[in-house]
C-alpha cells in the first residue's frame, strides 16, 4: 500500500511542478524560474537534514556521484523550463518522463547488460518521441512557430535527468535522501541564483511567486514521496511515478485547453506506455 501511495504521490507532485513551471516560465525567464525553485527547495531541504544521520567519511566516489546528480538535475530543469516556456505540457512532459529509460541506457554504456525486452522497449520509446516530433501541431496557425525547439529542449532535459538519476541511484545507496537532495539545490543557488542576483538579472513577478514556490516544494516532495514508496516496492512506485506526464497532460488539456494532433497524441501515448513497461521490466 505504501508503494502505491508513494508512487501516486510522486506522480501528483511532479505533475503539479510541471504545470507550475509551464506557467511561470512564460512569466519570467527560465533561469529565474529555476533560481527561485532551487531557493525554495533549499529552504525546505535544510531543516530536513536535522532529522537524518549526518554522513561521515564521504568517499571521493560518493562525492562525485552527488555532484553529477545535482548538476544533472539543475541542467535538466533548465532545459525542461525552456521547453515548457514555448511548448505544450502534453508534448513536453512525456519526453521528460523518458529520463528513466535514458538512465537505463547510460547504465548499459557503463557496462550493465541489456535484456532483449529492455532493448525493444527503448526502441519503442524512441519511436514515440520521433513520432511526436515529426507530427504537425494541431494548433499551429503560423509558420514561425516553436517548431522542434520544445522537442529538442525536452530531449536534452531528459538526457540530463537520466544522468542525474543514474548518479542518484549510486549516491542514495549509502546516503540519506535529504543529503542526496541537497547538492542540486546548492548548485542551483550558488551557480545560478547568486550570479543572477549579483548581475541584477533575477526576475520575479507577483503572478509568478506562487508558481515558483509551489513548483519548488513539489520538486522536493515528489522525490521524497518516491523514495518512501520505493522502499516498499520499487517497481510499483516507479511505474506510478512515471505517469506524472499523463496527469500533467490531462490537467493541461482541462486547465489550459491544450490540444494535440492525432499523431502527436499517438507519439506521447507510445512514450508513456513504453516508459511504464520498461520500468516494470528493469525492476
Essential attributes:
283 residues; mainly alpha
Characterise this structure.
The structure is a single chain. With 283 residues, the chain is an all-alpha fold. The chain has 12 helices and no strands. It is globular and about 50 Å long.
* Total strand segments: 0
- Low-confidence sequence ranges: none
Mean pLDDT: 85
Large-scale geometry: globular
Radius of gyration based on Cα positions: 18 Å
Query: Which secondary-structure class do the elements indicate?
Result: mainly alpha
Percent of residues in helices comes to over 70%
The main β sheet shows up as: none
Tally of domains: 1
Q: Please give the alpha-carbon distance between the first and last residues.
A: 18 Å
Determine the strand fraction and express it as a percent band. under 5%
Spell out the helices and strands N to C.
HHHHHHHHHHHH
Number of helical elements: 12
Could you give a quick summary of the protein structure above?
The chain has twelve helices and no strands.
Write the layout of secondary structure elements.
Layout lengths: L1 H23 L5 H19 L11 H27 L2 H8 L2 H11 L6 H19 L14 H23 L5 H22 L10 H22 L3 H9 L1 H13 L5 H21 L1
